[in-house]
Amino acid sequence: MFDWAQRMLGEISIVNSGKDYKQLNKGNIPVYGTGGYMLSVDQYLSKNDAVGIGRKGTIDHPQYLKAPFWTVDTLFFMTVRENNNLHYLYSLFQKINWKKYDESTGLPSLSKKTINNISVKVPEYIEQKRIGNFISQVDSLLSLQQRKAKQLKLLKKAMLQDLFTDKNVPKLRFNGFDANWIQCKLEKEALLTMGQSPSGSTYSDQPSTYILVQGNADLKNGWVKPRIWTTQITKLAKKGDIIITVRAPAGKVGRTNFDVVLGRGVASIQGNDFIFYLLSKMDMNKYWKKYAAGSTFESINSNDIKNTRVHVPNLPEQNRIANLFLRLDDLIRFQQNKLNNLQKTKQFLLQNMFI
């Protein structure tokens, strides 16, 4: 095994500049910017694979670019010098703290000179290739897992659209159910409690007597995530209640696993799982946006929520629909946890496979 050698990036790679694409015609050659794929044109800037790194704007998001491709003038593309491995370079770029080399006091930027002068330690080509190929395999697993998680979320969105309705009969239905859905006000199906903020002097960011929920910042992945505490009870939501935001953004929903104090940016709804998923669909369809039309501050009030007209089936059908979404959410969480663990594994490898 050879010792790793100290090198400048300019000794192992070549910084190439992107160019304007607007004079080109549409085609099948991808154009990349700092945010990723943009569109396709009829000419290429490189016929060799490369690693993209931002010149201006997003400078800390390396991209593996499959040839042929074109890059805009805000995205450098790096090719490797002889006896160096591109997959290794891509992995190395993901470990570098690029913001450390930002040359601007405004929009983040990098220069060729700065990139070329970054000092790194690199092994011989054979070891570079092994490391690069191994990290590439992890990236392939990550991409597969990301697709699984994304497809499940898209499936949930589609099912929310088809299993709920604003008419008497939904588009998609379980066998054995044929009764018309009934239209009613939401207050007939659920009990609403509007929030009221405690005195600011009772707030703490350290765990204390009561968890305070103020708005969307206190919801994560559909659940209350404790962030602020208070010693004063104003309005209370019980464990299992639905939380809905009433101020910008209005209509976001979650559940609480705790008894919580409600600030004025939220309300609680005592309703079953069917009502929770119904509200989730309404938020997805931006139902509450109509109450903010022409207003500088998006908000909904008690009457807006109580008087909202919804269509609901009988209780057995409600439970059947809710159980489907509960199982689907469990599956989404499982796949998301697998993705999170893979991402942690990759970060561990990047930290420990490079000197």
Explain what you see:
This protein is α+β, with helices and mostly antiparallel strands and 355 residues long. It has two domains: 5-123, DNA methylase specificity domains (Adenine-n6-DNA-methyltransferase TaqI, Chain A, domain 2), CATH 3.90.220; 182-312, Adenine-n6-DNA-methyltransferase TaqI, Chain A, domain 2. 32% of the residues lie in helices and 24% in strands. The protein contains seven helices and 22 strands. It has helices at 9-12, 86-95, 112-116, 125-163, 273-284, 302-306, 315-352; strands at 5-8, 13-16, 26-33, 36-41, 50-54, 63-65, 70-71, 75-80, 119-122, 182-185, 191-194, 203-204, 210-213, 219-220, 223-224, 228-230, 236-237, 242-245, 253-255, 260-262, 266-270, 309-312. The strands form seven sheets. The chain has a five-stranded mixed β-sheet with strand order 12-16-13-20-17, with no helix packed on it. The chain has a four-stranded antiparallel β-sheet with strand order 2-8-5-6. The chain has a four-stranded antiparallel β-sheet with strand order 11-21-18-19. A hairpin with a 7-residue loop joins strand 18 (242-245) and strand 19 (253-255). It is elongated, with a radius of gyration of 27 Å. The mean pLDDT is 95.
Chart the SSEs and their pairings.
Elements: E1 5-8, H1 9-12, E2 13-16, E3 26-33, E4 36-41, E5 50-54, E6 63-65, E7 70-71, E8 75-80, H2 86-95, H3 112-116, E9 119-122, H4 125-163, E10 182-185, E11 191-194, E12 203-204, E13 210-213, E14 219-220, E15 223-224, E16 228-230, E17 236-237, E18 242-245, E19 253-255, E20 260-262, E21 266-270, H5 273-284, H6 302-306, E22 309-312, H7 315-352
Parallel strand pairs: 3-7, 13-20
Antiparallel strand pairs: 1-9, 2-8, 3-4, 5-6, 5-8, 10-22, 11-21, 12-16, 13-16, 14-15, 17-20, 18-19, 18-21
